[in-house]
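Example 3.2
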Amino acid sequence: MGDGSLSQDEIDALLQGADDILSPSGPAQPQATGYQAPSSSVSFGEQGAIREILGSTISSVAPSLSGYLGGKNLIISNPVVEVKSQDAIKNDFPGRYVQVSLDFTGSINGKNLIIFNFADAGSISSLMMGDERGVAPAQLSEAHQSTIQEFTNQLLSSMAVQIGNSLGGSINVTPPALSIINNPSELQLPSDRSLIKVTYDFAIQGVVNSKLYQIIDPALASGLSSRSAPAMQQPVQAQQYQQHGGPVGISPVKFPPLDAGVIQSVGGNISLILDVPMTLTVELGRTTQLVQDILGLGEGSIIELDKLAGEPVDLLVNGKLIAKGEVVVIDENFGVRVTDIVSPAERLVGLQ
């Protein structure tokens, strides 16, 4: 119109165009986030079951590892469970990380991948090697990598024992395999399908406040989600009453059997006894002699021991063998450099 005003038809046309912009006829297009929908998924209920059993298990076993970290308190908590494709998981790890893979075998089977931030792994290894500050080294030597493998092995082994006890079975852990990744393509994911990514809050007292990651394959996720719910909850049988004043039915109390397998689940909060004094003894060797030989000893006598020259000496705590080492001299004092740690299985056998 010549006077600059709009007719009703023109106003209706403009409003229709605005409606088309606000409510497009086609389906909404997702924003580019780098996430790809996994080809197969785990339901929310299954994710909740995985979160429950992993969260309760790892939070209970983490404090028992404080002894490996110079007595510093370790807290692993608040698991976040996600179902993601391989590409989406790789996009989550663009920097430098340390990955340790272990498999579960037995009552449930599947692959685990534990991922540490590179600096966090360095701090763990430094603490385990005696550095109270936990300063992360610039590079992880073979010795540093061995300590991280041992730490991860103890963590996953303790979790396997507790999960196995909850499921009423036995779960074993394969030896850990460690590698350092510098880019996402080097990430060794346990499956070519969609995976479960679990992100934990990871804190070491005064040293680390970060995240820890666990990637599990669909087989292990299925085993945890399908068997954890009934196993984690013991149903309570209600008292039954007969309609006509009959006696009350009472279920007897049942206790789990006490057997040798219980010792494997002993973890607890070891920090409660960290200040208990223990006697550390270094034993060069032993021999057996008759009383008459003992009485005949004098200055200059030579006693032949049961060890050859150059053999490692034994380190005993309260009379129990825990390690072997070699004698060194430090500032005119004798010392022992630990060369071999007795495995937990061998120590348990020695306690029986």
